Amino acid sequence: MRVSIHELDPNECNRENPPFEVLISIIIAFGLLISYLPQHYRIISTKSSDGLSPWFLLLGTLSSTCSFFNIFILQFHMIKCCSIVTGVQCFENTLGITQLAIQFSMFALILTLFMLYFPPQRKILSYLRHIHFNSPPTGWSKEWRDSIGIAIFVTVHFILTVIISICLLKFGGSAEDYPPTKYWADALGVASMLFASVQYFPQIIRTWRRKSVGALSIPMMLMQTPGSFLFVYSLAIRPGTRWTTWFVFLVTGCLQGTLLVMCICWHFRAKRLGYGPFYVGETDSDGKPLAPHEQTRLLGDGHSTTSSRYDNTVHDVENS
Q1: Residue 124 lies in a domain
Q2: Who contacts 187 (Cβ-Cβ below 8 Å, separation ≥6)?
Q3: What is the pLDDT of residues 75-118, one digit of tens each?
Q4: 188 falls in which pLDDT band (50, 70, 90)?
Q5: How many CA atoms, within 13 angstroms, populate the side-chain half-sphere of residue 2?
Q6: Whole-angstrom Cα distance, residue 65 to residue 110?
Q7: Which tens digits make up the pLDDT trace of 245-268?
Q8: Number of other CB atoms surrounding residue 295 within 10 Å
Q9: pLDDT band at 6 (very low <50, low <70, confident <90, very high)
Q10: pTM of the model
Q11: Is residue 122 part of a domain?
Q12: Which residue ranges run through the membrane (predicted)?
C-alpha cells in the first residue's frame, strides 16, 4: 500500500541536520560537479573521445544508475517530506539524492560525448589490400558496433529501471512498508557495488595497451582520486557502518589512482618522445595495427588520419 502524505512523521521530516554534515554534503556535491567538467571539456575541446574504453563507460553508467535509484527509493520518504517542510529543510534532507543525481548525470554525459566525438577513422573497418583490393572498406568496426550496442543497452537499462522503480513506489509502497520495493532497492545497491568494483579494469587495460593518455582527463582524476579516499573516511567514521559499506569505494579509489599514475607516466613519456596525447602504440579492436603516421610525431597532435591508417596497414601487410 502507498504511504500518503498524512502518514508522514513530522518529527522525522523535520529532523535536525548537523551543520557540519550539511556543509560536507554540499562540498561533496559541488566537488562531484566540478570534478567531471575537465573530462567533458577535454573531449569537446579535442573533438575526440579516442582512448576511452566503452566498457569502462558501460560499467560506470550502470553503476551510477543503480546507485542513484537505490538511494532514490530508500529515501523516497524524504522527498515526500518536502510537501510539509520548508525548502531549506527539503534541500538538506535530500542532499544524498542530489549527490548521486549529479554523479549519474555527469557520467552519463561522458558516455554521450564519447558517442558524439567517436573518432571517424575508428568507425570503419581497417583496410587490408588482399581483402578490399583498391576499394576502401565501408563496414563498421567492431569497436564502433560495440559502442552502439553499449549506448542502446544503457538507455534500455535506464528506462526499465525508471519504470520498475516508479511502479513499485506508486502501486506498492515505500521500501519501509513494501518488501518488494526494499528488495529492488537492495538489488540495485548490490549491482552498483559489483559494477563499480570492476569499472576501472577495462580502462586500465586499454590505457596500458595504448601507451598514451588519449581523451582521459588527468585533472579530473587528480580531483576525484583524493576525494574518493575522503569519501571512504567519511563513511567509515559514521556510526553503524561496517567495512562492507566503504570497502568497494576504497577499491574504486585505488583503481582510479592506478589509472591516474599510469596516465601521468604516459603523459611525460609522450612529451619526452615528442608525441601528442593521442599517440597510439596498440592494435585496434579488430587486431589491426594503429601506429600513427610519420607526420604525427612532427605535428605532435597524436591524431592519425584515416589515410595514414590505411597506409600503415598496407605497409605491414606487404612486409608480412
Answers
A1: no
A2: none
A3: 888 888 888 888 888 888 888 888 889 999 999 999 999 999 99
A4: very high
A5: 10
A6: 14
A7: 677 788 889 999 999 999 999 999
A8: 12
A9: very low
A10: 0.79
A11: no
A12: 20-37, 57-77, 97-118, 148-171, 213-237, 243-268
Give pLDDT, residue 305: 40
Dist CA 44 CA 61 (whole Å): 19
According to the model, what pLDDT value does residue 174 have?
A: 85
**Residue appearing with cell numbers 576525494:** 227
Is residue 221 within 8 A of residue 110, CB to CB? The reply is: no
More confident residue, 250 or 61: 61
Q: Poorest-confidence range of 63-72, 126-135, 285-294?
A: 285-294
| Total count of domains within the chain | 1
The CA distance from 290 to 310, in Å, is 9
For residue 21 the three cell numbers come to 554534515
Q: Which ranges of the chain would DSSP assign to H, the alpha helix? A: 10-13, 19-46, 54-74, 76-81, 87-93, 95-116, 129-132, 142-167, 179-198, 200-210, 218-236, 243-273, 294-299, 306-319
pLDDT of 199 strictly over 90: yes
Grid coordinates standing for 92? 538538506
* Domain assignment present for 134: no
- Is residue 129 assigned to a domain? no
Q: Which residues have C-beta within 8 Å of that of residue 311, sequence separation ≥ 6? A: 293
| Alpha carbons 143 and 123: distance in angstroms, whole number | 7
Residues paired with 289 in a beta bridge: 283
Read off the DSSP letter of residue 123. Answer: T
The answer on pLDDT for 63 being more than 80 is yes
Per the CB < 8 A criterion, the answer to whether 234 and 24 are in contact is yes
Exposure of 254 in the CB half-sphere (CA atoms within 13 A): 8
Strand partners, 283: 289
CA-CA distance, 39 to 219, in Å (whole number)? 8
